[in-house]
Amino acid sequence: MKKIVFITSCFFVISLVSVCLALEGNIERGKKLFSDPKLAESTKNLACIDCHTEKDTFKSVPEGKELNYLINICIAEHMEGVGLLHESQEMKDLKSYIISRKK
Q1: E strand or H helix at 29, and its extent?
Q2: Residue 12 confidence (pLDDT)
Q3: Which of 3, 28, 40, 65 could anchor a disulfide with 81, C-beta 3.0 to 4.6 Å?
C-alpha cells in the first residue's frame, strides 16, 4: 500500500512540475528571439541584442508585467516593430531569457 501511495505521489508531482514548466517560457527560445531582428516585425532590422549587450544591463530588470511593458516599449519605439501580446509564447520565452541573464 505504501508503494502505491508513493508511486501515485511521484506521478502527481511530475505532472504538476510539467504543467508549471509549460506555463513558463523557454530560455533557449528566448535567447534566439533576443538575437532575432525579425522579432515583432522590426522595420529597423534591429534585435534586442543590438542595444542590450552588457550583462550589467540586466541587473535591474523588473519581473512580471512591468517587464512586458518595457519589452514592448523597446520593440515599438526603438525597433519600430509590433508589440508582443503579454501572454504570448514569444513574450514568455523572451522574459525567461532576460530574467535568466539577470542572475
Answers
A1: helix 27-34
A2: 46
A3: 40
d(CA 50, CA 95): 17
pTM exceeds 0.90 for this model:
no
CB–CB of 42/79 below 8 Å? yes
d(CA 22, CA 93): 11
Grid coordinates given for 81? 516593430
Query: Contact, 80 vs 37, CB < 8 A?
Result: no
Sign of CA dihedral 35, 41, 45, 46: negative
Q: For the segment 21-51, what is each residue's pLDDT rounded down to a tens digit?
A: 445 899 999 999 999 999 999 999 999 999 9
Q: If you average pLDDT over each of 21-30, 48-57, 84-93, which comes out highest?
A: 84-93
In the chain the domains, ranked by start, together with CATH numbers, are: 25-102 (1.10.760.10)
